[in-house]
Amino acid sequence: MTMRRWPLAALLCCLVLPAWAGPPAGSPPPGLAPERMAAYARSHMVAAANPLAAAAGRTILQAGGSAVDAAIAVQMVLTLVEPQSSGIGGGAFLLHWSAAGRELRTYDGRETAPAAAGPNLFLGADGRPLRFMDAVVGGLSVGVPGAVRMLEAAHRAHGRLPWADLFQPAIALARDGFAISPRLAATLQDDAALRADPAAGPYFYQPDGSPKPAGTLLANPALAATLQAIATGGADALHTGPIAQDIVAAVAGAARPGSMTLADLVGYRPQVRDAVCVPYRLWRVCGMGPPSSGGVAIAQVLGMVERHDLTAAGPASPDAWHLLLEASRLAFADRDRYVADPDRVPLPPGLLDRRYLADRGGLIRTGESLGRATAGEPPGKRADFAPDRSLEIPATSHMVIVDRDGNAVSMTTTIEGPFGSKLMVRGFLLNNELTDFSFVPEADGRPVANRVEGGKRPRSSMSPTMVFDRDGRLVMALGSPGGARIIGYTLKALVAMLDWDLDPQRAVSLPNLLNRNGPTELEMTPGAGPLADGLRRLGHEVQPMTAPSGLQAIRLLPGGGLVGGADPRREGVAVGD
Ligand code: GLY
């Protein structure tokens, strides 16, 4: 496999260390056998979407860096080596666990709409919504980036090594070159808009227009200079001055221009928000609150299924999955109606009310699917919204990091679709996050909560998650890319680890099965037939799912030590010492 072309250090880091102690207690995953053993480490670990990025994080941890220090190094390398998924031109949500302070903090580095953007941003002259890809490509979709400002805030609070040091692995790789990975090469196929960008075209494509193949050594001196500027000048180097001016010019000069100004970039502020936490059996599960819908949706599903015993049935049981899928339908119905930027649209406080979730869970029929679910009437609801049907296309990246002191990061990071808006500025890509807003501002005479407004953050599905035991100790952290499917992917791995006692590798490898309040989407592995048949008998419309998850998960063992898993569907690895 082409990974042979990758540097030796990157390969060595992927060789998994002593195996997970003992076989997992749960049933083996039906169909998709894990391609690798779970990784084990005594002191620290990083699980990320690319071996070079994971190696950079590991180097920082080996040097005594904190989990946040390592996350910054990983993000900067991902900007270079996984440019289709995330980067300094995008946004992120970060959960941070401070072991000494026993404090969970959630950082919101979500992009914002420019101040001048309004509800009709994605409506054409005829008042109809633009075609999705017409909205994606160009300046209209670009949100004010938030990832670097957010990482800077997290570093001020939790960093140990100097900020500038964290950029050195990425700067060296950008300067000297990295081997294009098979996944990046595959994503470059058939992307005419990216090829047409004057900076991205010659960088990613050969003179004859074909994509540079996997294994090609790719240097990015423009990104090396940008990262050096941020290393020296902090996030100000991105949000003010010449780089910011170039961002504004690229957005304004695109075929479909956006309205972003220097004032928008200067004014961007990351937020520290309350985590969304729910009790679930022996644990407390915490995630990211709005503007992400991920934490709320996962919390709702867990609240609805808690009364059922999923353990006895196991991961091959259509009945167990039916409960999860039906709860997911109900959660998506609420999500589509109520969840948006909380600074503009307050979340109904009753959405996680135990009685409300018990009532919603009571709608689930054990022998038959509900079909399409409608939103509930949660206590404290303040306004009546129309459902949002916005598309989210699967890109994004997830990392999980635990440092030697037990501090942890679970961070999902994104530029939205593959290669974002397809606009490359100074070696990095600008996001298309604004297409996570509803294109339609109102329906049936009611506003959509997630409509575009100036300065507002688009609703996300990103679901960085952490789980704590009864004594408040961190027991695992996980998350995934994948657009709106992120919620189902993360839920699958969570239930697999908590209810089915699978180790992190088996949990992430387990075939994906989810419902977004429509057809049930099932990954068609060789063992999937009986599960699909069982679900059809329960009334599910089962559709094959081809979109890959990109889960990463780390479990902290009670006696010390870390076990990690990385999704075999992408190029991620879990490495540690
Ligand atoms: N752009 C993917 C998400 O925020 O869910």
Automatic annotation (TrEMBL):
E.C. numbers: 2.3.2.2, 3.4.19.13
Binding site for L-glutamate: 110, 436, 460-461, 483
Pfam families registered for this protein in UniProt: G_glu_transpept
Single Gene Ontology BP annotation: glutathione catabolic process
Coiled-coil portions: none
Signal peptide: 1-21
Catalyzed reaction equations: an N-terminal (5-L-glutamyl)-[peptide] + an alpha-amino acid = 5-L-glutamyl amino acid + an N-terminal L-alpha-aminoacyl-[peptide]; an S-substituted glutathione + H2O = an S-substituted L-cysteinylglycine + L-glutamate; glutathione + H2O = L-cysteinylglycine + L-glutamate
Pathway: Sulfur metabolism; glutathione metabolism
Modification note: Cleaved by autocatalysis into a large and a small subunit.
GO molecular function, one term: leukotriene C4 gamma-glutamyl transferase activity
Classification via InterPro entries: GGT_bact, GGT_lsub, GGT_peptidase, GGT_ssub_C, Ntn_hydrolases_N
Active site positions: 396
Protein keywords: Acyltransferase, Glutathione biosynthesis, Hydrolase, Signal, Transferase, Zymogen
Assembly behavior: This enzyme consists of two polypeptide chains, which are synthesized in precursor form from a single polypeptide.
Family of this protein: Belongs to the gamma-glutamyltransferase family.
Protein name per Swiss-Prot or TrEMBL: Glutathione hydrolase proenzyme
Native species: Stella humosa
